[in-house]
Write a structure and sequence with these properties.
187 residues; alpha/beta; two-stranded antiparallel ribbon; 6 helices; globular
């Protein structure tokens, strides 16, 4: 359902957040797109701005499409729960429209691993749902997990890891409400 979902979604709805992310990164920095999907819009946007992009997604089909859509980036089929990139690998990590498809009990471990993979001064951007929930619903004809911690819990995890919060809050984008965090790893 990846291709169908991509055709349906409003790919420009978070361009402002992508622009803000790029302004916080060093020129030509190393960026991880965690949950890259088909590579559009996030990896494509960042590659066009001159960043060195690594994208990961659990779906082989999505990764194959991402390689076609953004040939200048590197894409790998990987489980976000077990990413093993070396410490201090990335200037930025962006994980949007992804966490809520992973059981919420795993979110703190994922965010901790992001912290490990970020360089000091690195930027983390993530979004999740606006209230705690978990369940499965039909999504483009397929069963889809939706799992979100209370935003206060997610924020506490990020702060407790030693990130400075640049800003956080609920945004309404494309008719949807999501909780966003922009944070910086401090030494």
């Amino acid at each position: 359902m990846g291709e169908q979902y991509h055709r349906f979604r409003d790919n420009g709805k978070f361009n402002q957040q992508l622009r803000e992310f790029t302004e916080l990164l060093p020129p030509s920095g190393q960026v991880l797109d965690a949950g890259c999907g088909v590579g559009k819009p996030t990896s494509e946007f960042l590659a066009q701005k001159g960043f060195d992009i690594t994208g990961v997604d659990i779906s082989k089909k999505m990764v194959d499409l991402a390689k076609e859509n953004v040939p200048t980036a590197m894409f790998y089929q990987r489980n976000i729960l077990t990413l093993d990139f070396p410490d201090d690998s990335f200037d930025g990590i962006i994980c949007v429209y992804t966490l809520w498809h992973i059981p919420r009990m795993n979110h703190p471990t994922i965010i901790q691993n992001f912290h490990r993979m970020l360089k000091n001064g690195g930027i983390l951007v993530l979004n999740t749902g606006v209230y705690e929930s978990e369940g499965i619903s039909e999504f483009f004809g397929e069963p889809m997990l939706w799992s979100t911690n209370d935003p206060k819990k997610t924020l506490a995890v990020v702060k407790n890891l030693g990130f400075d919060i640049i800003h956080e809050g609920v945004l309404k984008l494309g008719g949807e409400r999501q909780y966003w965090i922009f944070a910086k790893k401090v030494a």
